């Protein structure tokens, strides 16, 4: 027999997007149900942002402590597994916190089970043979994404993990192959290499970490290729080897104990029975929706987070969850402005992009401002002379459009530049801000000056100055 629930808002997914949506629904005091199949704790805290950054931090400490006399490449397995166990305990703190947040926010409106649509406002939620029917006035789909593990990995599946399993391993291997060198492949590859594990990374693309600017990509490959093998721009074949996997690409080959599939993530929408339930889907199986309201075209249903298949980042999931949750309790949805793009890979030195990428801009209408670490005093002191910054600006008026770079702690430069781009700053206006010395921010100053020098109409006064009565 079915249990039936009637409510105002049903939220599918208690991840980041679902919890931000729930906050808005609770603020409006509307009846709701929060559905999750489990485990609770969010992708970000359990198997995403937090454990990956914890591993990077452990790797950074290990690198600092490395005894230069011990260059044999041998790993102290006990020490490594002890570090790994500590890191997992820290991860559990974050995951438990997120899980408790879901439980305390939803209380007895938390429904454990797997949801699928029968029609756009009716859900069937199954849990161990028990079924609950949920009739909701509005539905928010926030059911996340999962790692892509393509069929051609089947022969080596026994030795393959995704990030869903990696952080649950009891022991780390001595060597690991990483297929896919996007943000996950590069962060985890470098973190594990710094912990003393032999890492072979391979990507079909000639770019690492999704870098769209060829010069920055070249610089990043030269830097990170010193820490892990990078096989780029060619397919890699996998086959079973003695207690592990054989990787082959062109004339290179390597045997590794374990393989990490870091080949991108797929939206979980395919498990929701959307087509049969009458949703309008595009060729990728994603419902057409308005990114400013998060509403699916013509339906009282909203999307939020990784399940949208675009900009699969924590801060986008939280913004989309808030928009979806807010609009689910309005009579008519409000169109919200979206933030400029911001992406940071914590590779140390970090790789970032803010605003439009080079690939998205028309090269005839932009000026690129360049700053090199070799000309920045602080970067040289930090032995980071290979740092590189590009700022892209409108060729006519110097309005900042995008930026990309590799630099130590570039998470901070990335924020400054994303904020400036979103505020509509120009190279001239941003130069009027104070710049200390000697700091990495002087690379921003140099790149901005480089833009101003290339502008068709340059200000008459010195860089960074404007007369008191000038607007
Ligand atoms: C290794 C890694 C590192 C990352 N690092 C960063 C980073 O440094 N910075 C950053 O901004 N982003 C990072 N991300 C991305 C970030 O983690 C995600 O964008 C974010 O967690 C997505 O949140 P979400 O709410 O959309 O999905 P999730 O948190 O995955 O939530 C989805 C929920 O839906 C539930 N669910 C799924 N299907 C159903 C169903 N049919 N019925 C009921 N419940 C269901 C799941 O159980 C889950 O709880 C990283 C991701 C990974 C994998
Ligand atoms: N610091 C961060 O913000 C951070 C860190 C990790 C993950 N993330 C998020 O998680 C998402 C997923 O990360 P990801 O790195 O798995 O995905 P991704 O899409 O960024 O990278 C996947 C990589 O796999 C490569 N690839 C595809 N098919 C291949 C094949 N057959 N052989 C070899 N390589 C192949 C692609 O060229 C690409 O470089 C990211 O898009 C990002 O949004 C963010």
UniProtKB/TrEMBL annotation:
Residues 344-447 form the Pyridine nucleotide-disulphide oxidoreductase dimerisation domain. It comes from Advenella faeciporci. This is Dihydrolipoyl dehydrogenase. One of its GO terms (molecular function) is NAD(P)H dehydrogenase (quinone) activity. NAD(+) binds at residues 180-187, 264. Its cofactor is FAD. Residues 8-321 form the FAD/NAD(P)-binding domain. Disulfide bonds join 44-49. The active site is at 437 (proton acceptor).
């Amino acid at each position: 027999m079915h249990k039936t629930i009637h409510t105002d808002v049903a939220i599918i997914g208690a991840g980041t997007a679902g919890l931000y949506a729930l906050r808005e629904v609770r603020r409006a005091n509307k009846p709701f149900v929060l559905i999750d199949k489990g485990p609770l704790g969010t992708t970000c805290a359990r198997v995403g942002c937090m454990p990956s950054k914890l591993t990077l931090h452990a790797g950074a400490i290990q690198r600092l402590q490395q005894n230069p006399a011990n260059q044999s490449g041998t790993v102290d397995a006990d020490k490594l597994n002890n570090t790994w166990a500590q890191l997992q305990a820290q991860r559990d703190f974050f995951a438990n916190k997120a899980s408790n947040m879901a439980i305390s926010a939803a209380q007895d409106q938390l429904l454990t089970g797997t949801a699928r649509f029968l029609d756009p406002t009716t859900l069937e939620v199954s849990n161990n043979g028990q079924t609950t029917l949920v009739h909701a006035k509005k539905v928010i789909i926030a059911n996340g994404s999962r790692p892509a593990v393509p069929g051609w990995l089947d022969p080596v599946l026994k030795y393959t993990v995704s990030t869903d399993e990696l952080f649950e391993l009891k022991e780390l291997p001595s060597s690991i192959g990483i297929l896919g060198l996007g943000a996950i492949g590069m962060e985890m590859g470098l973190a594990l290499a710094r912990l003393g594990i032999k890492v072979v990374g391979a990507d079909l693309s000639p770019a690492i970490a999704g870098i769209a600017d060829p010069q920055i990509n070249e610089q990043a490959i030269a830097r990170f290729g010193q820490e892990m093998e990078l096989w780029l721009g060619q397919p890699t074949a996998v086959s079973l080897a003695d207690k592990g996997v054989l990787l082959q690409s062109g004339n290179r080959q390597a045997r590794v104990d374990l393989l990490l599939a870091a080949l991108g993530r797929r939206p979980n929408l395919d498990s929701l029975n959307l087509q049969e339930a009458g949703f309008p889907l595009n060729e990728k199986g994603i419902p057409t929706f308005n990114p400013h309201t998060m509403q699916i075209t013509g339906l009282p249903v909203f999307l939020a987070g990784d399940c949208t298949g675009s900009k699969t980042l924590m801060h986008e999931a939280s913004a989309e969850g808030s928009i979806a949750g807010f609009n689910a309790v309005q009579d008519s949805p409000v169109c919200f402005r979206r933030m400029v793009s911001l992406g940071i890979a914590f590779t140390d030195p970090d790789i970032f992009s803010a605003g439009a990428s080079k690939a998205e801009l028309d090269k005839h209408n932009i000026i690129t401002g360049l700053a090199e670490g070799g000309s920045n005093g602080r970067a040289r002191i930090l032995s980071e002379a290979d740092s590189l910054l590009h700022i892209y600006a409108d060729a006519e008026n110097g309005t900042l459009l995008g930026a990309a770079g590799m630099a130590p702690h570039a998470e901070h430069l990335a924020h400054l530049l994303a904020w400036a781009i979103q505020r509509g700053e120009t190279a001239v206006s941003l130069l009027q801000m104070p710049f200390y010395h000697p700091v990495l921010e002087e690379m921003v100053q140099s790149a901005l000056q480089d833009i101003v020098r290339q502008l068709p109409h340059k200000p008459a006064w010195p860089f960074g100055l404007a007369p008191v009565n000038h607007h």
